[in-house]
Amino acid sequence: MADNEDTDDSRRLALDETLIVFTNNASSGHKLFVWKQFTQCFKCPLVFWEQLEPKETKPLKVTTNYELRIAITDQRPNDINYWTLSEESVFCQNSYSLLDQSKHVFTINGGNDYKCQIQETESGRNNIWPIVGAVLIYVIAAVLFYGGRRLFYRWRERQAAALAVSSPNESPIVEMRTEQKDDKRRKRLKSLDCFRGITILMMIFVNLGAGNYENLDHAAWDGFNFADIIFPWFIFIMGTTMAISFKSIVIRQKQTVSKIYYNIVKRSFNLFVIGLMLNSKGSADFRTLRIPGVLQRFGITYLVVGSSHVLSLLVHKGELFGALRIHQLVDIIPFWPEWIVMSLMAVLHFALTFGWQFSPICPQGYIGPGGLYDNMTHVHCTGGVAAYIDKWVLGDKHIYGHFTGDRLYDPNHEFSLRHDPEGILGTTTSIILTFLGLQIGKILIAYPNPKQRISRWLVWGLLLGSLSALFAATETIPINKNLWSFSFICLTSSAACFAISLLYYLIDVLQIWPNGQPFHYPGMNSILLYIGHEITADMIPWSFNVDESSHVGPLARNLVAVTVWFVISVVLAEKGFFLTI
Description:
Elements: H1 2-11, E1 17-24, E2 32-38, E3 46-52, E4 57-63, E5 68-73, E6 82-83, E7 91-96, E8 103-109, E9 115-122, H2 129-166, H3 171-186, H4 190-207, H5 230-252, H6 257-279, H7 294-315, H8 336-355, H9 373-376, H10 384-393, H11 406-409, H12 426-446, H13 450-473, H14 486-509, H15 520-523, H16 526-535, H17 552-574
Parallel strand pairs: 1-8
Antiparallel strand pairs: 1-4, 2-3, 2-5, 3-6, 5-7, 8-9
Helix pairs in contact: 4-5, 4-14, 4-16, 4-17, 5-7, 5-12, 5-14, 6-7, 7-8, 7-12, 8-12, 12-14, 13-14
């Protein structure tokens, strides 16, 4: 009875797992060794998985989040855990893409020339269907809501028309109030609010778990996943908003440059401190407090980019937004001080990343994840100079205590790899990314014609996308969110240029998407939603117990949390409450 229970337990699968039952039917009578690796692990050695005695059968589980590579050997010299020896001694090496909850039989036959066969005994499930179902639910809800609202508006118009006949003096009052409300909305760039709203809802969804979909989470190291675009878009949008707010401060409020600089420093300080406070949630210990973070990155980039913008104001004596309009490059040439600052940021980034021999055991210019990467040639060089600077300046106890690439590059957790994705060196490229967002805002201010704006945004998008593709294709600078590589900020800023162009055309130019509804609501209170979801992440109704055996439960929980925050943003917007820092 106990043996049967053990067997059942060994074959019970968790979420995103598959079962492979290995059988050693080799006629040679030798014990065999099963090895595994994931194809996404770049040039990684095979990892020892299990030993099979002659005629032995063993069920083994493995994640389905990556493509699996399986190999068999009839030797394991010195009980090694990683096969870095000759490939000639490896048999039956092949890769498999297996579905969640699927079950397979892997049979090894033959004598000295081993032959392997894998057969599916139970088909798995395609985990895309919960996402499809969720999208359909939201689409149906949106159609019912906006369709019902349109019918209600028509009914109200008929009622107003009937009232105008009986009481002609009352109708203009209603129309005047409606016009006043519309005028207030026109003061904001609707497409930018919509873009910001979409981004904050995506961020909340990902930060709360993304329905336990690993392919929606951050890439392990090199590469690009859904979650990797969100934070850069926020940085980019902050730069665009900065251009608009500075115009208001200089032209309408007529603030002095010193007052503007004071407000920049104040806001940067507030963002940094709030970020530290959020980092202390769950562990309020100054000895181990993580110093880098999302809001800290916002604060530093805002300080540098905002200060360089103030420098441009000083050069032009506060008349920047009315100068040189006759020039086709009015969005570039007057801002030469900012371009100098950004060039220095780029030089600093490249010089430190590729020109500093920071360790005798790590090659100059190393930007890999360490661990198993590249046949374990540089195990303890994770993150290269970026990680070295963080540990040197901040100390091991004040940086991120985990590593996003553990499952691939340190599967047995024996190397203690660590890297902070919001570290010091990555701030240099974040500053450039904020500046690129600022550049989009400058185009918005300098060119009143929508065609001029969109054409220039698209040119920037194509230029930045081409740079990213060039770096990635030549493998000189891989797309890497952990390092905020130059190719990464080019890719994300390119995507942002295309996104804002599309949203602006649909919402502000054609006006076929009124106000960017409903995403403009969270977009007007994004900082409140970010801080709020960080604080309430483990509180009801944003978190509750669900069945974790499939993606349905975690996905529903995370979408409920996103929906609750969306409703809160609508209520706050209707009440006219907007949090600013």
